[in-house]
Specification:
Elements lengths: L1 H10 L3 E4 L9 H10 L3 E4 L11 H10 L13 H11 L3
């Protein structure tokens, strides 16, 4: 996983923490690795309806266990900054 995180950093892209309780596919230790390597993590509810937005609590819990703070979470930033960061990471 460390190789993947370092590759993400080299490419200027970010990682996704899928917060669906049956997924949570970025473990807390991976969140900590991403933080230590300077890679932002996006916490995604994986909601397919408004009722599933509550899934965010699982992703936030996972992120907290990985020691992520607001500055480490892509989608905790102002929308203009998120757009700039996403544009910087995109490759045409």
């Amino acid at each position: 996983m460390l190789r993947i995180i370092r590759k993400a950093k080299a490419r200027g892209v970010h990682l996704e923490l899928n917060a669906h309780p049956e997924r949570l596919d970025l473990f807390d230790i991976h969140c900590r690795m991403a933080r230590d390597e300077g890679v932002l993590v996006s916490v995604n509810s994986d909601a397919h309806s408004v009722l599933e937005f509550d899934n965010l609590k699982y992703g936030i819990g996972q992120a907290r266990r990985g020691w992520l703070e607001k500055a480490d979470v892509l989608n905790a930033r102002p929308v203009g900054e998120v757009r700039r960061l996403l544009k910087r990471g995109s490759r045409s």
